Amino acid sequence: MIWKPELTVAAVVEEQGRFLMVEERAGRRRVFNQPAGHVEEGEDLLHAVARETLEETAWHFEPQHMVGVYLWKNPANHKTFLRIAYCGVLRGQDVGRPLDVGILRAHWLTRDQLLGHEARLRSPMVLRCVDDYLAGIRYPLALLSQLPLEQVQARAAVL
Question: All domains of the chain, ordered by start, with CATH?
Answer without folding.
Answer: 6-158 (3.90.79.10)
